[in-house]
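User: Sequence in, structure out. Go.
Assistant: Echoing your sequence, followed by the structure tokens.
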Amino acid sequence: MAKLKDVLRPLNDGEFWVIGESLNVIGKEIGKAFKERNPKPIQAEALVQKEKGVDLIDINLGPAKKDGHELMPWVVETVQEVVDDVPLVLDTSNIEAIRAALPKCKMPPMINSIMVRPARYEAMIPMAAEFGADFCALMWGPEGLPRDENERAALLVELMTVANEAGIENDQMWVDGIVTPVNIQQPQAISLMNFMDMLPEIMPGAMSTCGVSNISSGVPDNLRHVLNITFTVMLHHHGMKSFIADCKDDITMDLAHGKRPDIMKAIKDTMDGNPPDMSSLSQELQHYVKSTNVILGKTLFSDSWLEV
């Protein structure tokens, strides 16, 4: 049985995979299409994501409590009528909806996600093993969000142990250490990057992913993009393999395919303690450098950090 990693494009140095986020029940048009079983908007979005170059397509039904077991396989088949060569990510808290859809997937799928709570993983890990599916290992434990990288590590060991015993290998688990808003929990960004540094030793061969846009939740809309891009590069520098993101964002897609080495260098040099001469940078790159310092805690967060 093929693994998900075997059907994804090989990554060159500086590249990462993008999981398209826009087939989501919270989207007005897509949510309506799910409810009405209207295939046209769903297929149109899937075709856009393929054209933009996403590596996986996330199908997010939310809770889907009432009819998820019927809706998820229908959406999977609807997408695959027009795009059958991009792997799918099945994203819902309804376990039976995922179970019903897994046999419909034409390519190795991913389950998004399995929390580190026995009530969830005891039901979901055997299902992932049965169908040979990868899964997103969400570092959300019985007490909620881990306080630091050590608590994240302890949760990961618990989930990894159960998964390995079920026959699931490390490279079928996509670890999500959870991104939190920088304007509320600034130290958590550092904790997540520290955790990513620990990941290869704790879980050799593991994959990784995250919803990077959570870093800018609650930030004014005009400032969110620069934070999202900055943290994407910062996490990639610490080994993050993939990001759940908007494929319509050209900078994200360029970064994913190694086309913006200028952004990568400016942010990485700043992280490594060799900040570039600001006077030599474009305004765009200056914004990324300033945002790097905010996320690192070197600059106090405020809505005017780019103006300082």
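User: And one key feature?
Assistant: The chain is about 45% helix and 15% strand.
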